[in-house]
From TrEMBL:
Entry GO CC: cytosol
Domain Peptidase M3A/M3B catalytic, residue spans: 262-710
Entry-linked Pfam families: Peptidase_M3, TOP_N
Catalytic reaction list: Hydrolysis of oligopeptides, with broad specificity. Gly or Ala commonly occur as P1 or P1' residues, but more distant residues are also important, as is shown by the fact that Z-Gly-Pro-Gly-|-Gly-Pro-Ala is cleaved, but not Z-(Gly)(5)
Highest taxon listed in the record's lineage: Bacteria
Name the record gives this protein: oligopeptidase A
Entry cofactors: Zn(2+)
Annotated EC: 3.4.24.70
Keyword Manganese in record: no
Domain Oligopeptidase A N-terminal: 86-189
GO BP annotation list: proteolysis
Cofactor: binding details: Binds 1 zinc ion.
GO MF term list: carboxypeptidase activity; metal ion binding; metalloendopeptidase activity
């Protein structure tokens, strides 16, 4: 999952966190004094055009930093809104792009506390800050004088003479204002701002509740309860227990990277059920961290807000400026895939039940059995053992593989920074300098935070601390990847599953998207949610290329390359379990769309989830990938709300683009096609309409049948 910095969030948050009223010279002087003393406000310092001073960050500085940063931003934007000269691209749009640099830096640090170093103190502070930032945002998006100037540029004769990127930046700016309450007046305008403030508080509450359950539900095992578990997993569980003060025990943490392998290998069915319930009931345990009421409130407020703007429902508003354009188009895509996915699940369950019956298990396959018996089917059908594959999937070697792909396709060379000149916020974090391998030009830095720990939110994500622009001189890129792998024992390799290896490549794809940028303005980094996952999903395909397999998939003990016979089995089983993976994802995507196209007055989240999935024919042997009460993509913020379908939309592009590489003379390392990929699909970011960008790469729109072929589903006309 991608996360972006302030400069890449779009006007509703970036410029929306800029000002709306004048500030006094006294306030400016006071803020200047605060800036000198507060590292969160200071320009990044040190080498590489300056880097975040993570070793000096102090949570006590956060609130005063925001106060000073907001005041500075207010002053910057006040000049734009009250400029007596006629509005032009330079004195309005570009000046808004320049506004509030301090806030960008503050949000870099704030993101670390929220995602990587969370604590009760930081969560309480986030709860206090959320409504204040929302009030600030609403004041700007509803600033009539500011909007009038942006609108004047958008409708001017000058607009016709602007470069394509300048035109798109102007449209993005205007559109963010228009779609976020700038056209409202009177009571409707005040209510819109009030709703935004309430939603900010609820989004923070939702994510805090989920994190509390992730930290609070840990299963500790003794040696008698380890049956079936691989040695590498046991070692990681022992380390996790020791970190929690339980030396001699084994911890199954409430994270996907711990849950997934436990459910795959443990022969203790009762424990599998317990671990499964801990994970999938996050935020829904009927206690003080239960999110059902919070979901209802969020949906109700979102619905009321878009009705103020004249939209029928939230999804209609959300998708208007996405590739899908409408809820109907998003639903139409999912309707093409869903029947084939659930039909495949029935086949997979039948295979699993047959093995369970043959083993005399005397059970009916339940959700906590799916991974366990799926693995048995994999062994029987393909003679393929996931744990055997895992012995060749070393985290460090996979990182080297990603660097290899980056050099072949993007001409990027990575060299680790080991002299201590780049501060980090945890000992696990490592940093690499990125250069152009042909010219030696410095591109930026790549930070890697790979391991799970207390206070770090679950999942995997990418981010930037600074993005590439040339508006005021060329800036380098500070990119970061974050994962939650279970760290191997001291001195031994960290081994991960094939699925985790795909995720590793996926998130690195986001980093390459950041590092490849060739745009002028910060606004060009705003993401289109049903497109931004495409580049990262596409990079997953290089994991299965011969060049990567033959060089980097080596046994962690012997150093021997993975046997060709095992590789053949992996490729032969490429469509195995696609019913499960497609259905668990699509169930979440379809529920997201249903939540945001249904009158919230008719929704009781727990009942609604159950009733709607039953109507869809959801197989009872598995559940949504993200059940409602921990569906952070859509309820801890609005980035993916009514847009979780975007992963599937992007997957259509991915499958279609992968076929282009498969058919190219040089295959997946065809240089001409790689250059075309970088030019049209990576470097432009959002400086061009994504549909147009894809047509420039492929010569046509993407074909959904490529996705069906990829997943081994029947292709229908």
């Amino acid at each position: 999952m991608i996360k972006t910095t302030m400069t890449a969030l779009g006007l509703a948050v970036v410029v929306a966190l800029s000002g709306c009223t004048s500030t006094t010279e006294l306030t400016k002087a006071s803020n200047s004094q605060v800036s000198q003393e507060n590292v969160l406000l200071q320009p990044f310092s040190g080498p590489f055009q300056g880097v975040p001073q993570f070793d000096k960050m102090n949570l006590a500085d956060l609130t005063p930093a925001f106060e000073a940063g907001i005041a500075e931003h207010l002053a910057d934007v006040d000049k734009v809104a009250n400029n007596p000269e006629s509005a032009t691209f330079e004195n309005t749009i570009v000046e808004l792009e320049r506004a509030g640099k301090s806030l960008d830096r503050i949000f870099t640090y704030y993101g670390i506390w929220r995602n990587n170093k969370s604590s009760e103190e930081s969560r309480a502070l986030a709860k206090e800050l959320a409504p204040k930032l929302s009030v600030f945002s609403s004041k700007v998006t509803q600033n009539g004088k500011l909007f009038d100037r942006v609108k004047a540029v958008y409708q001017s004769e000058e607009y016709k003479t602007l470069t394509p990127e300048q035109q798109r930046v102007t449209w993005l700016t205007y559109n963010s204002f228009a779609r976020n309450g700038a056209t409202l007046t009177g009571e409707a305008k005040a209510r819109y701002a009030e709703i935004n403030q309430q939603l900010a508080t609820l989004h923070t509450k939702f994510s805090s509740n989920v994190l509390a359950d992730e930290e609070g539900y840990v299963v500790f095992l003794d040696k008698s309860q380890l049956s079936g578990l691989p040695e590498s997993f046991i070692a990681g569980a022992a380390s996790a227990a020791a970190e929690r003060g339980k030396v001699g025990q084994f911890a199954i943490t409430n994270s996907r990277s711990s849950m997934d392998p436990f459910l795959t290998y443990s022969t203790e069915r009762a424990l599998r059920e317990q671990v499964w319930k801990n994970y999938y009931n996050r935020g829904g345990n009927g206690d003080q961290y239960d999110n059902n009421a919070t979901i209802k409130q969020i949906l109700t407020l979102r619905h009321e807000r878009v009705q103020l703007l004249g939209y029928e429902n939230y999804a209609q508003w959300r998708l208007e400026d996405r590739m899908a354009k409408s809820p109907a188009n998003a639903k139409a895509l999912m309707d093409k895939v869903w029947p084939a996915a659930i039909a495949r699940v029935k086949e997979e369950v039948a295979d699993m039940q047959a093995i369970a019956d043959k083993d005399g298990a005397n059970i009916t396959i339940a959700p906590w059995d799916y991974r366990f018996y799926s693995e048995k089917v994999r062994k029987e059908k393909y003679d393929l053992d996931s744990n055997e594959i895992k012995q060749y999937l070393q985290l460090d070697k996979l990182r080297e593989a990603m660097f290899y792909v980056a050099k072949r396709l993007f001409n990027f060379e990575f060299s680790e920074v080991t002299d201590g000149s780049v501060p980090v916020y945890h000992d696990d974090v490592r940093v690499w300098e990125v250069k152009d391998s042909l010219t030696g030009k410095h591109i930026g830095l790549w930070y890697l935070d790979p391991f799970a720990r207390k206070g770090k939110r679950s999942g995997a994500w990418a981010n930037t601390f600074r993005s590439y622009t040339t508006m005021d001189g060329e800036t380098n890129v500070l990119s970061t990847n974050n994962s939650n792998f279970v760290k191997g024992p001291e001195g031994k390799a960290t081994l991960i599953s094939w699925s985790d290896a795909e995720t590793y490549f996926h998130e690195f794809g986001h980093a390459l998207h950041f590092l490849s940028a060739d745009v002028v303005y910060p606004q060009s980094h705003t993401g289109v949610r049903d497109y931004t996952e495409f580049q990262s999903q596409l990079l997953e395909r290089w994991l299965t290329t011969d060049e990567v397999i033959n060089q980097f998939l080596v046994h962690h003990e012997t150093g021997e390359a993975i046997p060709k016979s095992l590789v053949d089995k992996i490729k032969k089983s490429s469509t195995f379990n696609q019913g499960f993976s497609t259905t668990e994802y699509m169930a979440s995507a379809m529920m997201d769309l249903l939540y945001h196209t249904t009158d919230p007055a008719k929704i009781d989240p727990a009942k609604f989830e159950k009733e709607q999935l039953t109507k869809l024919g959801m197989p009872t042997e598995l559940v949504m990938r993200h059940r409602s009460t921990h569906f952070g993509h859509i309820f801890s913020g609005e980035g993916y709300a009514a847009a979780y379908y975007g992963y599937l939309w992007a997957e259509v592009l991915t499958s279609d683009a992968a076929e282009a590489f498969a058919d190219a003379p040089g295959g997946f390392y065809d240089k001409a096609l790689a250059d075309k990929l970088v030019e049209h699909l990576f470097s432009v970011r959002n400086a061009m309409d994504p549909a147009q960008a894809y047509r420039l790469f492929r010569g046509r729109d993407a074909d959904v049948s490529a996705l069906m072929r990829d997943r081994g589903f029947p292709v229908t006309k």
